[in-house]
Each structure stands twice: as C-alpha cells, then as structure tokens.
Amino acid sequence: MDFGIHGRWAIVCAASQGLGKGCAIALAKEGVNLVINSRRQETLDAVAQELRALNPAIEVRTVAGDISDQAVRDAVLSAPPQVDILVNNNGGPPPGDFRDWNRDDWIAALDANMLAPITLIQACVDGMAERGFGRIVNITSSAVKAPIDVLGLSNGARSGLTGFVAGTARQSGLASRNVTINNLLPGAFDTQRLRGSIDKAASKSGRTHDEVAQARLAAIPAGRFGNSEEFGEVCAFLCSRQAAYMTGQNVLLDGGTYPGTF
C-alpha cells in the first residue's frame, strides 16, 4: 500500500534507537525526508547513514541535543523547509516511589514528556493547516491506559499530554484541514529501556535476566515482546493519507496485555 507521503518532511525525535528509530525507518521506506534528533551526534550520524542507505532518494538531516531544551527544539524546527509530519518522542522519567520525588523531579518529567511535545505541536500545526496536510504522532505509553505504580512521573506527565491532545486534535481549524494528532501507546517492546528494566528487576529480586523476562512474557497474550519495526509501521500508517479520518485517538500496541474493553 502506498501511504501517499512520499516527498513529505518529517521530524522524528529521539530517533537514534528503539521505537523512535523504528518510526524513522518506516517513514524512510515511504520516501519521507527526515530530520532526526537524539542527544548524541555520533549515534545520530550513524542512524542517518543507515537511513540514507535504506532509501537514497530521501534527504536526512540531524540535530543533536535534548529535545526538552528550547534551543534544540528551535534547531530541529528550522532544519526542514517545512514540517508535514511530527513524531514526538522522548525517554521516560525513572521509576521510583512517589514519596521520594520533589518538585524538580516533577518539573523535569513534565518538561520532557508533556511540555516539549506540546511546544513542538504549537510550532507546527498552523503551518500544517495552511498547507492542508499534517500528521502528528506522540509516542506515549500503555501506562496512560493502565498506570504502573512505580512510573508515577511518567503516568502523570504523559496523561497530561493525552488530555491536551484530546481537546486540541478536535479543533475544527485542524481536523477539517487535514491535520491529525494521535497518540501511540507502546506496551513491552524489545528496546534498550526494557532490557535495562529487566536487568534492574533481576538484580533486585535475585533472579536471572531470563527468568524475569519469561515472567513478563507470561503476562502478554501475544507471547512475545514487540519490535521496533512493527511499531514504526503503525506510526507510518498514522502519518498516511489513509489515516486522514483518524484523530484524537490513543492507539495501544501491547500484544493484548491491557484487559479492558475501552
């Protein structure tokens, strides 16, 4: 299927590995020109070379730095000639006990996982509406639907973004002008973050990495962790012309783990 986005320009944040990289790869395959961002220039350059090799017809530009920093966001936004597609992504805040978090912890979580994506959305939507095309995908977390007790910082910040999107996506000046905003909610995907989480749980419990991983797998009806390639392909669909009638939605990719009806 041709997603009808060949030649568009996309910004993909936190694209040097994991789910962000999966989204960048999927968009590259669709012929989308890319501005990719992550903290380390060396890693980012390697990914850019990989994307150019994957599709020599596209242009790939890089901006290194923390997307929570306004100066980095300004550089990212000025890198493409226009922004047709925005994929908001950032690393999640650390787990812990809410009793131990102070105001600075909360502000850092909000800056990274709520305010940074909102600022990027603000900067892009009016230009998208004027041109009659825009796709925004926010990578959040399955914890938005089923909160995880030790991820309170993430639960709070990402839920705030979800509430913001629920109203903003339905503004007639955006939805009627072919600008969509949707959230993509990953469950357990085979990423460096998940492997690190399993290592920490194993160390704390005295079990092996494989034992903890198998226990996690037992709770997933699909019987496996997701992979970044399939995640990226769903993201690319949400950016497609075919998804023009889909906005303000929370798309859950968790292998069937969430037990609810809604």
List keywords for this structure.
single chain; alpha/beta; Rossmann fold; seven-stranded parallel beta sheet; 9 helices; 14% strand; globular; SDR_fam; SDR; SDR family oxidoreductase; NAD(P)-bd_dom_sf
Structure description:
- The chain has 262 residues and is an alpha/beta fold.
- It has 2 domains: 9-187 and 227-252, NAD(P)-binding Rossmann-like Domain (Rossmann fold), CATH 3.40.50; 190-225, no CATH class.
- 46% of the residues lie in helices and 14% in strands.
- The chain is built from 9 helices and 7 strands, in the order E-H-E-H-E-H-E-H-E-H-H-E-H-H-H-E.
- A 7-stranded parallel β-sheet has the order 3-2-1-4-5-6-7, with helices on both faces.
- Strand 4 (85-88), helix 4 and strand 5 form a beta-alpha-beta unit.
- Helix 1 (18-29) packs parallel to helix 2 and helix 1 (18-29) packs across helix 9 (228-238).
- It is globular.
